[in-house]
């Protein structure tokens, strides 16, 4: 009887630890915003979290790269990060991709503690279709 009780207690402790790490980020979304990708998240209890590192990977890749760091600001905070390094326009008007020409990316958030790290879920987002922003005047000119 004691062995069953010890196993049950051990299971509850393990499950409690996993849930504590998963609960730091309550929501995580990403969307295209003009010629950049915006990553937004809301934290839960940030017990011991020092900072958040936004990581990106091409969908067909396996290595995540750091694209930005945000200092933790306290429990139940909202965070916003704009990934502007997907593509840019050179002085001669040609497009330059800072990473390979994938159209779909994976993002995740690394939570940094004093002596440890943990990761959020991974989310997927498409790269903007064009680095050119259309203004109302440009759209009207297309129909003349």
Secondary-structure blueprint:
Elements: H1 2-22, E1 25-33, E2 36-43, E3 51-58, E4 65-71, E5 78-83, E6 87-89, E7 95-97, E8 104-112, E9 117-119, E10 123-126, H2 136-142
Antiparallel strand pairs: 1-2, 2-5, 3-4, 3-8, 6-7, 8-9, 8-10
Explain how this protein is built.
The protein is an alpha+beta fold and 144 residues long. The protein has a single domain, classed as Immunoglobulins (Immunoglobulin-like, Sandwich), CATH 2.60.40. Helix content is 19%, strand content 42%. It has two helices and ten strands. The strands form three sheets. Strands 3, 4, 8, 9 and 10 form a five-stranded antiparallel sheet that branches. The protein has a three-stranded antiparallel sheet with strand order 1-2-5, with no helix packed on it. The protein has a two-stranded antiparallel sheet with strand order 6-7. Strand 8 and strand 9 form a beta hairpin. The radius of gyration is 21 Å and the shape is elongated. It starts with a helix and ends with a helix.
């Amino acid at each position: 009887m004691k062995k069953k009780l010890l196993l049950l207690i051990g299971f509850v402790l393990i499950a409690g630890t996993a849930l504590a790490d998963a609960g730091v980020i309550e929501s995580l979304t990403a969307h295209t915003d003009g010629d950049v990708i915006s990553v937004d998240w809301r934290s839960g209890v940030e017990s011991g979290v020092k900072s958040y590192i936004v990581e990106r990977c091409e969908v067909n890749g396996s290595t995540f790269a750091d694209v930005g760091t945000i200092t933790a600001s306290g429990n139940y905070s909202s965070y916003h990060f704009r990934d502007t390094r997907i593509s840019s326009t050179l002085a001669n008007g040609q497009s330059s991709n800072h990473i390979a020409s994938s159209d779909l990316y994976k993002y995740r958030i690394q939570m940094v503690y004093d002596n440890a790290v943990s990761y959020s879920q991974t989310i997927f987002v498409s790269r903007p279709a064009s680095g050119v922003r259309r203004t109302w005047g440009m759209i009207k000119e297309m129909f003349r």
